[in-house]
Amino acid sequence: MNAASAPVKRGVAISRRDWMVLALLVLVSLLVPAGLNRGLVFIAGMIWINAVFGLAFNLLFGMSGVLSFGQAMFFAAGAYLCALLLQSQAVPFVLMVPLAGLLGAALATAVGVVALRRSEGVYFAILTLAFAELVHLLIANTSVLGRNDGLAGLARPRLGGATWGLDLAQGDRFYFAIVVTCALLIAFVRWLQGTPFARALQALKQDPDRAEFLGIPVKRHRLAIFAIAGGVTAAAGALVAPWAQIVTPELAHWSNSTNPILYTLLGGSAYFWGPVLGAIVLSCVFYATRTLVGLSDMVTGLLLLGVVLSLPGGILGLVDRLRRPAPEALTRPATPREATR
Question: Is 137 helix (H, G, I), strand (E, B) or coil?
């Protein structure tokens, strides 16, 4: 095997490993209702949704280096669109998630056209935060969207017509629907990261000026990935409406935009499964500290502070460093015992 073919085969192996990890996660998640109570099943469903939320953010931050503080507006847009469609019962559920994704992509395109052309770096992050707060205020002051009370009492949908099909409100059927839908979204994100488009994003992340010189349209690519991330985020948000059976303006609040950032930093932004691991760990921390009134946020903040200061690469970065041999082990001469092995 020559040197040119080695990276290709290594990439294929990594891709296969990712598909195996996804299949294992789906299998374990499908067995969750058999061994856990309804409250933990609800948390498991939210973990899947938050994992997609984090992966969508890392499409921006990890692949193109674009930092956004406004991802919550896309999440809320998908949730509210699904809530309105559930109330009207005019659209089948199989179309609600794709429609939410289209709305999120359209909203992200509109925001990106303004933000990406006017600013970059930290200024872009602040501008997206401002847009998210505008969406939050718009939702909180719109009577059709329930104002500050939101939309409550949402019924879980059916797969099919009103008189036929599968009723997702029975048992754990909607939880299984969340697992399948989120797995498909994760598979899409993983596929996207192996495309030439993703490699072009990595090039412009390292050196935008050189990428522009090589013929890569930097602003167009950033706008495209911003729209894709907004669409995936909105699709994940659409699952929250029937799962929680309530949507509130807090979904668009700036604090919700920090969640995918925390997932990504905790798990490791340089790794595909980093946001997923971060979502799992933080959800477990939130559940373990749920009875600590007033201390839950402090415990979470101290955990994240410790990770940022001592584990700059996240949990997966630490695992990767522990798996690699120490530099001195690679350079020192082998002992007689090691040489005979």
Answer: helix
CA distance 49 to 26: 13
Q: What is the pTM of this model?
A: 0.88
C-alpha to C-alpha distances, 184 to 74, 100, 200, nearest whole angstrom: 19, 15, 24
Cα separation, 272 vs 290, in Å, equals: 29
pLDDT value at 13 more than 50: no
Maximum distance among all Cα pairs of the chain, rounded to whole angstroms: 79
Q: How many CB atoms lie within 10 A of CB 116?
A: 19
Closest by CA to 244, choosing from 144, 167, 147, 152, is: 152
At 1 the pLDDT is 42
Residue 285: what residue type?
Answer: V
* Amino acid code (one letter) for 215: G
Yes or no: say if 200 and 221 are a contact pair by the CB < 8 Å rule: yes
Q: List the one residue out of 86, 92, 239 whose CA is nearest residue 160.
A: 92
Query: Phi-psi category of 67—alpha, beta or left, where left has phi over 0 and alpha has psi -120 to 50?
Result: beta
Cα separation of 20 and 48, whole Å?
A: 17
Cβ pair 112, 220 in contact under 8 A: no
Mean pLDDT, rounded, for 133-148: 93
User: Residue 246 gets which letter from DSSP?
Assistant: E
Q: Is 214 helix (H, G, I), strand (E, B) or coil?
A: coil
Q: How far apart are CA 158 and CA 165, in angstroms?
A: 7
Neighbours of 161 (CB within 10 A): 8
CB 226, CB 130: distance < 8 Å: no
Rounded distance between C-alpha atoms, residue 49 and residue 174, angstroms: 13
Handedness of CA 209, 211, 215, 219 (dihedral sign): negative
**Cα–Cα separations (whole angstroms), residue 13 to 8, 17, 19, 291:** 9, 6, 10, 44
How far apart CA 77 and CA 230 sit, in angstroms, is 10
